[in-house]
Automatic annotation (TrEMBL):
Its main location: membrane. GO terms for cellular component: plasma membrane. It is found in: Cell membrane. It is a multi-pass membrane protein. It comes from Pandoraea terrae. This is ABC transporter permease. GO terms for molecular function: branched-chain amino acid transmembrane transporter activity. The chain crosses the membrane at residues 27-44, 50-69, 76-94, 100-123, 130-148, 182-200, 231-252, 264-297, 317-335. Signal peptide: none annotated. Keywords: Cell membrane, Membrane, Transmembrane, Transmembrane helix.
Amino acid sequence: MFYREAGQFKTSYETDGQIFPIRQDRLAVGALLALAFGVVPWFASEYWFSAILVPFLVFALAALGLNILTGYAGQLSLGTAAFMAVGAYASYNFQLRIEGMPILASFALGGVCAALVGIAFGLPSLRIKGFYLAVATLAAQFFVLWVLTKFPWLSNNSASGVITAQKITLFGFDINTPVRKYLFVLSIVTVMALAAKNLVRSHTGRAWMAVRDMDVAAEVIGIPLMRVKLLAFAVSSFYCGVAGALYAYCYLGSVEPDGFSLDLSFRILFMIIIGGVGSILGSFLGAAFILLLPILLDSTLPALATFLHLPFTNATVSHIQLMVFGALIIFFLIVEPHGLARLWQIAKEKLRIWPFPH
C-alpha cells in the first residue's frame, strides 16, 4: 500500500530508463541524500566523522567495486586490498611527482593504475573460474605488497614503506577538517554509486550477469567473454583504487603496505556476503553492518560481562567478534544468500500489499 506503483505510467523511453523508475525510490534516495549532505554535517561529532562515517563510505565504495566483479560478473576475487593499495600509492606518487596535479585527477589516475593491475591479474579468468580464480587473484595480494615493500621509490624512499598523504586542496579550498573530508568522500561515493547503478542496468551490466549465470551460453549468444571479464576486472579495480586513495587521504592520513593485508580483503568480501551479492544497496548495508557491529559489541559485551560476573578481557571481546562474524556469514549463506539487501526487498514487497493479505 505504501510502496505501490499503481498509477505510475511510463509514457516515454526516458521515464522507462530512469535509474529509479518508482516515485517512492526517488523520494527515498532524495531524502537520504538531503539528510547526508544537509543534516549530518550540522549534528554529527568529530568522532562520528573520523571513526564511523568516513570509513563507512570508503569501505562501501571498496565493497561496491568487489560487488561489480563478484556479484554481477561472477568472478571471485581475494585481491581487493591489493588494488586499494595500488590506488593509494599511485595517487600519492602522482601528487608527489607532478607539480600542480589536481587531487581528483590523482585519484582518477590512481584508479586507472589499479584497473591496469586488475586487468593483468584478471587474465587467468579466461581459463579458470571459481576457487581457482580466487587463488590466482590471491597472488595479486602478495605480489603488490611485495612490490611496495621492495621498491622504495614508490614510497619516496621510506625505509618501512610508510607514506603520508599530502593535504587535500580542491579548487583552492583546503579539505582539512573531519566534516569537510566527510562531504568530500560522500560526494565521490555518491557519484560513483549512481554510475555503478546505471552501469549494471546497461548493456555491459547485462553482459556481466549473462557471464555470471552461464558463461558458455553467454558466449554462444555472441557475448565476447575476454572483453567482458577483463572489463569487469578493470571497473572493479578502478573502484577499489579510488577507495584506496580515499582510505589513505581522508581516513588514515598515512598508510603502509601491511595495512592493505589479506585480512582487509576478507573483510570487504564479508561485507558483500552479508550485505548482498549482486546488489548496489547491499554494499552499503554490508559495510555499515561490519563497521558498526564491533562498536556495538565493544560497548555491550563488557557491560554484559560485568552483569553476569564473567572475566571478559579485551582479547576475549575480539575473539567473540570473530565468532559472531563467522556465525553471521554461515547464517546468511544458508538462510538468505542474497543478504540484507534481499531482506529489504522482501520488506518492500510486503509494503506493496499491506495491510491486505493478498
